[in-house]
Amino acid sequence: MPLSETAAAPQRTRRAITVVVALALVFGAWGVWRVLAPAPGDAHQRLAASEDARKALQADHAELQQRVATLSRSDQISREANRELQGTLAERDEEIAGLRADVAFYERLVGATAQRRGLSVHAITLQPQSDAAWHFQSTLTQNLNRGAVSTGRLSLSVEGSRGGRLQKLDWDALRQQEDAPGIEYSFKYFQQVQGDVFLPEGFEPVRVTVRLQPRSGAAVEQSFTWAQATGSTPSATATE
């Protein structure tokens, strides 16, 4: 074999080895890329998974909003119920106070230690119905003759001023009726008598007097200031 051919053989061998190595690297890289690179279907699956996750989050958000709305409504209902309860309790307290006052009144009237008094006016209240009309309610009592029935008629008169001058309105003027009959009463221990009176325009009342004319015996008169009768002052003390 010539010398030149003997020298060229190793070179061809090295080239062949280089080509084989290069091809091996190429095929290895291609294999790695095939293994690591996502398959065409993976992208669609990921998109589908992302859409499902988004819908799940939206559902959770809607559920949380519904819970918040439900809790807010429950809180509002609780607050309204509490306000109604407070109002009911206030009404009950007022009723209890009224009942206690009634019990004290009955005890003073018919109790074992009650002071004996004949026919009298315990109190009178006046409430406005319009600019001129007033509704009155007067409580009459007697415990001197227990078991005896007191009968008669009640009338009012009002003192005040009009146009800078003192004036007294009798029952006829207050009822706007000539020879107006008094309001009848009939009771053993107490009775509440009520009716309406009318004040002329510009009249400023200062005192109201209740007159009781029993069927037999002398008349009884008791006076109250207008402020007491209308509740402008704490108590209503009568003066005979």
Detailed description of the structure:
With 240 residues, the protein is of the alpha+beta class. The chain has a domain of 110 residues: Immunoglobulin-like (Sandwich), CATH 2.60.40. It is built from 4 helices and 8 strands; from the N terminus they run H-H-E-E-E-E-H-E-E-E-E-H. The strands form 2 sheets. Strands 3, 4, 5, 7 and 8 form a 5-stranded antiparallel sheet that branches. Strands 1-2-6 form a 3-stranded antiparallel sheet. A hairpin with a 5-residue loop joins strand 7 and strand 8. The N and C termini lie far apart (165 Å). The relative contact order is 0.10. The model has no long low-confidence stretch (mean pLDDT 81).
Proportion in helices: 40-55%
Proportion of beta-strand residues: 25-35%
Look up the CATH topology of the domain at 120-229: Immunoglobulin-like
Termini separation comes to 165 Å
CATH class of the domain at 120-229: Mainly Beta
Question: What structural class results from the helix and strand content?
Answer: alpha+beta
Number of strands: 8
Oligomer: single chain
Report mean pLDDT, rounded to a whole number: 81
What characteristic shape results from the CA principal axes? rod-shaped
**Helical element count?**
4
H-E string: HHEEEEHEEEEH
Concise account of the structure shown:
The chain has 240 residues and is an alpha+beta fold. 48% of the residues lie in helices and 28% in strands. The chain has helices spanning 3-36, 40-110, 171-175, 226-229; strands at residues 120-128, 133-141, 150-162, 165-169, 183-187, 190-198, 203-214, 220-225.
